[in-house]
Specification:
Low-confidence stretches: none
GO biological process, one term: response to oxidative stress
Organism: Amylocarpus encephaloides
Helix content: under 10%
CATH superfamily: AttH-like domain
Number of helices: 5
InterPro entries: Ceramide-binding_SVF1, Svf1-like_C, Svf1-like_N
Family: Belongs to the SVF1 family.
Number of domains: 1
Mean pLDDT: 89
Keywords: Cytoplasm
Structural class: mainly beta
CATH class: Mainly Beta
Strand content: over 45%
CATH topology: AttH-like fold
Largest sheet: 14 strands, antiparallel
CATH architecture: Beta Barrel
Distance between the termini: 25 Å
Shape: globular
């Protein structure tokens, strides 16, 4: 009967019945035994599943001048019948008028003739190349898909990549041996960035730091998560990253949080003992979602120095953007979620630069507390 209910939900895109907490095996449980594992080159392979899924590679680059660009490659398959690929590029404060409605350069383009190299570690399409080097420590991202934003950036990791637990994956389904869905995240938390982004108005030098995330939602997006929180924080010395999702009621509104703190050459601490809080929110009168006003991100765990903790908290300031997801994703994904009652996906984005940044406070073993400012980007997403 559970299989029938799930199959029905998959076929018609409806919300799922409430299976309860026994229908999810979170990566948090893995992390109790193995807080994290370092990534190998093979861990960076595209999975390109032939069942319903959304697989993404997302890159965030933060220049020394305080500019931020996000790049996201979306690979989507619907029930093994149709595959689409979409490239999203967002350059924050492109025009600097102070009006988020017009400041940001947002490009969202479908891709044609997509494919992978023989070992599934690099992606290609007309006008786009995302290529992992032989050493497995550098990704070259090039795009001439849209002349409004030409991309030529190289992300070189300067610390090992990691996944929480043994494989970074949370599994969905009432039969542990045959899960019907999964959620997976793998991170390069700290990269040096070189290259540029060229617009008709200006060429932006993106020398600086950033991060890379490879994620898989191996089921319909609104079945996998009802809410998301993400933060990346890059300082001259440290990189902090955290990803949290909360499942729909189908899976007992289970919260899964993963993250870590790194510096050049070293993952200081990583695992699932992370928390995200928004002590203050306000109702958005247009969407009725609780828009964050303040945030508090905490990392707890162990390091080679002993007990480890870090905190990043404070006011978020005015939101930089609010994205109506359904207006910016491929139509085939939109068809999966757009007609489901209660599904209203929006992303609230906030960022600041070292001039007015939040402060990352780190306590590592018996060492004195260290504090650093940096460039901050957070996203809070509501799905259903």
């Amino acid at each position: 009967m559970n299989w029938f209910k799930q199959t029905l939900a998959n076929a018609v895109g409806t919300q799922e019945p409430e299976y309860g907490p026994e229908a999810i095996r979170t990566v948090t449980a893995q992390a109790e035994k193995t807080p994290y594992t370092e990534l190998t080159k093979d861990d960076l392979k595209w999975k390109a599943m032939q069942s319903t899924n959304v697989e993404t590679q997302t890159f965030y680059a933060m220049s020394e001048e305080g500019k931020i660009v996000s790049l996201q490659m979306i690979y989507n398959n619907v029930a093994g019948m149709m595959t689409t690929c979409q490239l999203n590029v967002k350059l924050f404060d492109h025009k600097e008028t102070g009006d988020p409605a017009v400041d940001h350069l947002w490009l969202s383009d479908p891709l044609e003739n997509h494919g992978f190299d023989d070992d599934m570690k690099s992606f290609y399409a007309d006008g786009v190349s995302i290529a992992l080097n032989e050493a497995g420590d550098e990704i070259a991202f090039k795009s001439a898909r849209n002349e409004l934003g030409l991309i030529n950036l190289v992300f070189k990791r300067v610390t090992p990549g990691f996944q929480v637990g043994e494989n970074g994956t949370t599994y969905y389904g009432t039969d542990p041996e045959n899960p019907w869905g999964e959620m997976r995240h793998r991170f390069w938390p700290r990269c040096t960035i070189t290259g540029n982004v060229i617009t008709p108005e200006k060429t932006y030098d993106f020398k600086g730091h950033g991060c890379f995330i490879h994620a898989i939602q191996g089921m319909k997006p609104h079945h996998a998560a009802a809410k998301w929180d993400f933060v990346t924080f890059q300082t001259p010395t440290y990189s902090a990253i955290m990803m949290e999702f909360t499942t729909p009621a189908s899976y007992a509104s289970t919260k899964v949080t993963v993250g870590g703190i790194a510096k050049d050459g070293e993952i200081i601490s990583a695992g699932a003992h992370c928390t995200v809080k928004h002590p203050e929110t306000k109702e958005d009168p247009e969407t009725f979602w609780p828009e964050p006003i303040t945030a508090e991100y905490q990392w707890e765990g162990k390091s080679k120095e002993g007990d480890f903790s870090a905190i990043l908290k404070g006011p978020l300031g005015d939101r930089m953007d609010r994205i109506d997801i359904l207006s910016h994703i491929p139509g085939v994904i939109k068809s999966l979620v757009g007609g489901v009652v209660g599904t209203r996906p929006y992303v609230y984005q906030f960022y600041n630069t070292p001039r007015d940044s939040l402060v990352l406070s780190i306590k590592n073993g018996d060492n004195p507390t260290v504090e650093e400012q940096g460039t901050f980007l957070s996203e809070t997403s509501f799905v259903c």
